[in-house]
Amino acid sequence: MYFPLYEFSFTVLAGLATSLFSGLLVRYVRKLRAPKGETIQDRVARLTHSLEEATSLIANIEEEVKARSSLVTQLQNDVDRYNKLVEIKRPEVEAIAQLLRGELKREGRASFWKSFAVNFIFFILGAGVSLAITLLTKPSPGLTSP
Question: What are the pLDDT digits (tens) for 92-114?
Protein backbone atom coordinates (compact mmCIF):
# COMPACT_ATOMS: atom_id res chain seq x y z
CA MET A 1 0.00 0.00 0.00
CA TYR A 2 1.32 3.26 -1.10
CA PHE A 3 0.81 6.24 1.21
CA PRO A 4 3.13 9.12 0.54
CA LEU A 5 4.03 11.38 3.35
CA TYR A 6 3.67 14.62 1.47
CA GLU A 7 -0.03 13.85 0.66
CA PHE A 8 -0.66 13.17 4.32
CA SER A 9 1.10 16.35 5.32
CA PHE A 10 -0.90 18.32 2.75
CA THR A 11 -4.19 16.90 4.12
CA VAL A 12 -3.22 17.74 7.68
CA LEU A 13 -2.15 21.26 6.68
CA ALA A 14 -5.42 21.82 4.74
CA GLY A 15 -7.47 20.63 7.74
CA LEU A 16 -5.45 22.85 10.07
CA ALA A 17 -5.93 25.87 7.79
CA THR A 18 -9.65 25.24 7.47
CA SER A 19 -10.01 24.86 11.22
CA LEU A 20 -8.05 28.04 11.84
CA PHE A 21 -10.09 29.97 9.25
CA SER A 22 -13.43 28.79 10.66
CA GLY A 23 -12.30 29.64 14.21
CA LEU A 24 -11.33 33.14 13.17
CA LEU A 25 -14.61 33.55 11.26
CA VAL A 26 -16.68 32.49 14.28
CA ARG A 27 -14.73 34.87 16.50
CA TYR A 28 -15.28 37.72 14.05
CA VAL A 29 -19.04 37.06 13.88
CA ARG A 30 -19.31 36.92 17.66
CA LYS A 31 -17.42 40.18 17.91
CA LEU A 32 -19.82 41.79 15.44
CA ARG A 33 -22.85 40.61 17.39
CA ALA A 34 -21.51 41.61 20.78
CA PRO A 35 -22.37 45.11 22.00
CA LYS A 36 -19.51 47.44 21.21
CA GLY A 37 -17.89 49.23 24.06
CA GLU A 38 -20.90 49.16 26.36
CA THR A 39 -19.70 49.75 29.86
CA ILE A 40 -21.51 49.20 33.10
CA GLN A 41 -22.19 52.94 33.29
CA ASP A 42 -23.81 52.83 29.84
CA ARG A 43 -25.99 49.92 30.84
CA VAL A 44 -26.96 51.63 34.12
CA ALA A 45 -27.81 54.83 32.21
CA ARG A 46 -29.88 52.85 29.71
CA LEU A 47 -31.66 51.05 32.55
CA THR A 48 -32.31 54.36 34.34
CA HIS A 49 -33.74 55.85 31.15
CA SER A 50 -35.98 52.82 30.66
CA LEU A 51 -37.22 53.05 34.25
CA GLU A 52 -37.93 56.78 33.91
CA GLU A 53 -39.86 56.13 30.70
CA ALA A 54 -41.82 53.31 32.36
CA THR A 55 -42.61 55.57 35.33
CA SER A 56 -43.82 58.29 32.98
CA LEU A 57 -46.02 55.84 31.10
CA ILE A 58 -47.46 54.50 34.34
CA ALA A 59 -48.26 58.06 35.48
CA ASN A 60 -50.00 58.76 32.15
CA ILE A 61 -52.03 55.58 32.45
CA GLU A 62 -53.01 56.46 36.03
CA GLU A 63 -54.19 59.91 34.90
CA GLU A 64 -56.21 58.37 32.10
CA VAL A 65 -57.79 55.85 34.48
CA LYS A 66 -58.68 58.65 36.92
CA ALA A 67 -60.23 60.72 34.12
CA ARG A 68 -62.30 57.79 32.92
CA SER A 69 -63.28 56.95 36.47
CA SER A 70 -64.53 60.49 37.04
CA LEU A 71 -66.43 60.31 33.75
CA VAL A 72 -68.06 57.05 34.86
CA THR A 73 -69.01 58.65 38.17
CA GLN A 74 -70.48 61.67 36.39
CA LEU A 75 -72.46 59.45 34.00
CA GLN A 76 -73.75 57.38 36.92
CA ASN A 77 -74.90 60.58 38.66
CA ASP A 78 -76.65 61.68 35.46
CA VAL A 79 -78.42 58.34 35.19
CA ASP A 80 -79.57 58.58 38.81
CA ARG A 81 -80.81 62.14 38.26
CA TYR A 82 -82.73 61.18 35.11
CA ASN A 83 -84.30 58.20 36.86
CA LYS A 84 -85.47 60.50 39.67
CA LEU A 85 -86.89 62.94 37.14
CA VAL A 86 -88.78 60.12 35.46
CA GLU A 87 -90.23 59.03 38.79
CA ILE A 88 -91.21 62.61 39.67
CA LYS A 89 -92.76 63.28 36.26
CA ARG A 90 -94.63 59.95 36.01
CA PRO A 91 -97.82 61.22 37.78
CA GLU A 92 -97.80 64.29 35.54
CA VAL A 93 -97.43 62.11 32.45
CA GLU A 94 -100.30 59.89 33.59
CA ALA A 95 -102.50 62.94 34.21
CA ILE A 96 -101.75 64.35 30.74
CA ALA A 97 -102.40 60.97 29.11
CA GLN A 98 -105.74 60.67 30.91
CA LEU A 99 -106.70 64.20 29.84
CA LEU A 100 -105.78 63.43 26.22
CA ARG A 101 -107.82 60.22 26.29
CA GLY A 102 -110.85 62.16 27.52
CA GLU A 103 -110.39 64.80 24.81
CA LEU A 104 -110.05 62.13 22.14
CA LYS A 105 -113.27 60.45 23.32
CA ARG A 106 -115.17 63.78 23.25
CA GLU A 107 -113.70 64.66 19.89
CA GLY A 108 -114.60 61.21 18.59
CA ARG A 109 -118.24 61.65 19.64
CA ALA A 110 -118.39 65.15 18.19
CA SER A 111 -116.80 63.94 14.98
CA PHE A 112 -119.34 61.13 14.77
CA TRP A 113 -122.29 63.53 15.05
CA LYS A 114 -120.74 65.97 12.58
CA SER A 115 -120.18 63.16 10.09
CA PHE A 116 -123.73 61.92 10.65
CA ALA A 117 -125.18 65.38 9.99
CA VAL A 118 -123.10 65.86 6.81
CA ASN A 119 -124.07 62.41 5.53
CA PHE A 120 -127.74 63.04 6.32
CA ILE A 121 -127.67 66.37 4.45
CA PHE A 122 -126.11 64.68 1.42
CA PHE A 123 -128.69 61.87 1.67
CA ILE A 124 -131.57 64.39 1.65
CA LEU A 125 -129.96 66.33 -1.23
CA GLY A 126 -129.41 63.10 -3.18
CA ALA A 127 -132.99 61.98 -2.61
CA GLY A 128 -134.27 65.45 -3.65
CA VAL A 129 -132.17 65.48 -6.84
CA SER A 130 -133.25 61.93 -7.65
CA LEU A 131 -136.95 62.90 -7.20
CA ALA A 132 -136.50 66.03 -9.29
CA ILE A 133 -134.82 64.07 -12.13
CA THR A 134 -137.55 61.47 -12.01
CA LEU A 135 -140.28 64.12 -12.21
CA LEU A 136 -138.55 66.00 -15.01
CA THR A 137 -137.89 62.95 -17.16
CA LYS A 138 -141.26 61.22 -16.65
CA PRO A 139 -143.72 62.09 -19.40
CA SER A 140 -146.90 63.70 -18.29
CA PRO A 141 -150.07 61.55 -18.65
CA GLY A 142 -151.82 63.95 -21.06
CA LEU A 143 -148.91 64.20 -23.50
CA THR A 144 -148.60 60.60 -24.57
CA SER A 145 -148.44 59.90 -28.28
CA PRO A 146 -150.46 57.08 -30.06
Answer: 878 888 888 888 888 888 888 88
CA separation for the pair 50, 62 (Å, rounded): 18
Residues found in the chain: 146
DSSP state of 34: S
HEC sequence for 7-25: HHHHHHHHHHHHHHHHHHH
pLDDT in tens, 36-86: 667 788 888 888 999 999 999 999 999 999 999 999 999 999 999 888 877
Position 122, amino acid:
F
Please name the residue ranges forming H helices in the chain: 5-33, 40-137
DSSP letter at 65 equals H
Tell me the backbone φ, ψ of residue 34, rounded to 5 degrees: -70, 145
140 phi and psi, to 5 degrees? Answer: -75, 150
The amino acid at residue 110 is A
Q: How does residue 142 score in pLDDT terms, banded at 50, 70 and 90?
A: low
Report the alpha-carbon distance of residue 47 to residue 50 in Å, rounded.
5
DSSP state of 1: -
